[in-house]
Amino acid sequence: MPDLTGTVTIVTGGNAGLGKETCRLLLSKNAKVYMAARSEAKAKAAMDEIKKSTGKSNIHFLQLDLADLASVRKAAETFIAKEQQLHILFNNGGTMFSPVDQRTKQGYDGEWGVNLLGPWFFTRLLLPVLTVTAKTAPKGKVRVVHNSSNAEGSWAPPEGIVWESLGTDEKAHKVQEALGDMKRYGQSKLGNLLFSNELARRYADAGIVSIVVHPGAIRTELQRHTPFVLKMIMRTFILYPLKFGVITQLYAGTSEEPPP
């Protein structure tokens, strides 16, 4: 990773797993880091540990609950009130196999809401500051990195996005139940891919690079809703240590190679 002095970054879901390690390595390279997370207590504990391990202190808490669009708006407004620039946004936060009745504050499917709708809204609100930053930053240095999964191809419904499942009424809830956990998750990851591609198409001329990545099969808290037996099988035989997964999004966000 290059030296990131003067680079302002946000990492959603930054208090644990891939997000925490991303924050640690960004800070170690002198970036200014905003750890966006739902729990202030957990975030502060994570920040204290990161400060101790890196010997650096330019890391800050940003209250963000991706399952509540009002919280998302407030987080963006709080950031914009403090900063005039944003160089890298890591849309890292997410969930996997959340219970079908665990919906967002506004009543949307939890997988769709946390994995796509919340990050989409957050990014949309931050586009003005990203665009302004891109006007003076070196070409290709303003980036939005979306942490997705290869589940967008293997687990998403074969017909793609099931639009009938995206509402907040009882009919939509029944469609969500019929889809099941794997398809609900895969659909949200397909949404990440489509969103990243469209963001790249619309804002390339404004100097914003949008990249979607698959971190690999990694042991993180993302599997907290996975059934116990399946979780043990995955962690023992399938999933790789955390340190391998963080490489992907850090490379996408900070590589000095010119983006495609």
Account of the 3D structure:
The chain has 260 residues and is an alpha/beta fold. It has a single domain (8-254), classed as NAD(P)-binding Rossmann-like Domain (Rossmann fold). Helix content is 50%, strand content 12%. The chain is built from eight helices and six strands. It has helices at residues 17-28, 40-54, 69-82, 110-136, 151-154, 170-203, 228-238, 242-254, and strands spanning 8-12, 32-37, 59-63, 88-91, 142-147, 208-213. Strands 3-2-1-4-5-6 form a six-stranded parallel sheet, with helices on both faces. Helix 4 (110-136) runs parallel beside helix 6. The chain is globular.
Q: How many β-strand runs?
A: 6
Main beta sheet: strand number and arrangement?
6 strands, parallel
Shape: globular
**Which fold name is given in CATH as the topology?**
Rossmann fold
Helix/strand structural class:
alpha/beta
CATH class type: Alpha Beta
End-to-end separation = 19 Å
